[in-house]
Write a structure and sequence with these properties.
single chain, alpha/beta, Udp-n-acetylmuramoylalanyl-d-glutamate--2,6- Diaminopimelate Ligase, Chain: A, domain 1, UDP N-Acetylglucosamine Acyltransferase, domain 1, 2 domains, ten-stranded mixed β-sheet, nine-stranded parallel β-sheet, 5 helices, about 15% helix, globular
């Protein structure tokens, strides 16, 4: 689309060449020529961004050093970004029945451009969209869905009911209190020697890839959100939820029912105890626990009452 047309649709001011032909959106980590890159913080303004020919989508309180880039200036860059992603929404191709091993009981629904290596085996009702690449010695269980652009390495096992490359949960709340969905055009990249359990969900990236690196093992009922990166040889137990844009280091061990909020970073060799909540970066190796021991409910109500008053108690002690 021509940049001037996009600007009208999102009510943006253009500084620079309004006749650029825009091909889509790119991330600030990987800015691309003739793409639009969302900038919400000065931390995103790396030399790579400033030296690129990407179009920068920014709020009106613009940093003057961006003058070398073509700019789209708006009141709310996040809402504008969500609208732009939907302008470039591409419809997926509906897979058609294919019988790779000519066995009706092993029906697989896949697009013609599926690329797979040797010793590829699968269960019943596997659904694979376009532009998917699968390596050697891969097993995919029953009722697995693999969405477009996913890349799966060698020696990978994917348990039944798991979804790879689903749409991420990215939304922006507008002034009218209605949610505007961000179209996720990225992919999922799975390395070698990865084992994924049953009924897991791994969302594709917003623009770039969600990454499951080599040697990772994942239990059942795990959700990994968009733009997450899981480091090599990490183990994730059942019912873990990892929110968007989190970076997990190598050789992490994440216990069952752990919740990790968005944009968290963990270093290598971290152990997180079961049922912990992680809401801050873990930058030193070691074991972390973010829970209170279980007690009787009647006792917990008294403890909770004191917890809610801790700030007042601290202020009182300071004044004393």
């Amino acid at each position: 689309m021509i940049l001037s047309k996009i600007a009208k649709l999102i009510n943006a001011e253009i500084i620079g060449d309004e006749n650029l032909s825009i091909q889509g959106v790119s991330s600030f980590e990987n800015p691309k020529t003739n793409f639009i890159t969302l900038i919400t913080s000065n931390k995103h303004l790396s030399d790579n961004v400033l030296e690129s020919k990407t179009v920068l989508l920014v709020n009106k309180n613009i940093n003057q050093k961006l003058s070398s880039n073509t700019l789209l200036i708006v009141d709310d860059s996040r809402i504008a970004f969500a609208k732009i992603t939907n302008l470039f929404l591409k419809k997926s191709i509906s897979p058609s029945p294919s019988f790779i091993n000519n066995s009706i009981k092993h029906k697989i629904f896949c697009c013609p451009d599926l690329v797979f290596g040797s010793n590829f085996s699968y269960g019943i009702n596997v659904f694979i969209e376009e532009n998917v690449s699968i390596g050697n010695n891969v097993y995919i269980g029953n009722n697995v869905t693999i969405y477009r652009n996913s890349i799966i390495g060698n020696n990978v096992t994917i348990g039944s009911g798991t979804t790879i490359g689903s749409e991420g949960f990215g939304n922006v709340l507008q002034d009218n209190k209605k949610w505007l969905h961000i179209n996720h055009s990225g992919s999922v990249v799975i390395g070698n020697d990865v084992r994924i359990g049953e009924n897991c969900c791994i969302d594709r990236g917003t623009i770039d890839s969600t990454e499951i690196n080599s040697g990772v093992i994942i239990d059942n009922l795990v959700h990994i959100a968009h733009n997450v990166s899981i480091g090599e040889d990490t183990a994730i137990a059942a019912k873990v939820g990892i929110a968007g844009s989190t970076r997990i280091g190598k050789r992490n061990m994440i216990g069952g029912m752990v919740g990790i909020v968005d944009h968290i970073k963990t270093c290598d060799d971290v152990i997180i105890s079961a049922t912990s909540t992680v809401n801050d970066d873990l930058l030193e190796p070691g074991r972390y626990t973010g829970i209170l021991p279980i007690i009787k409910h009647s006792s917990w109500k008294r403890v909770a009452l004191w917890i809610t008053k801790l700030d007042k108690i601290v202020k009182f002690i300071k004044f004393k």
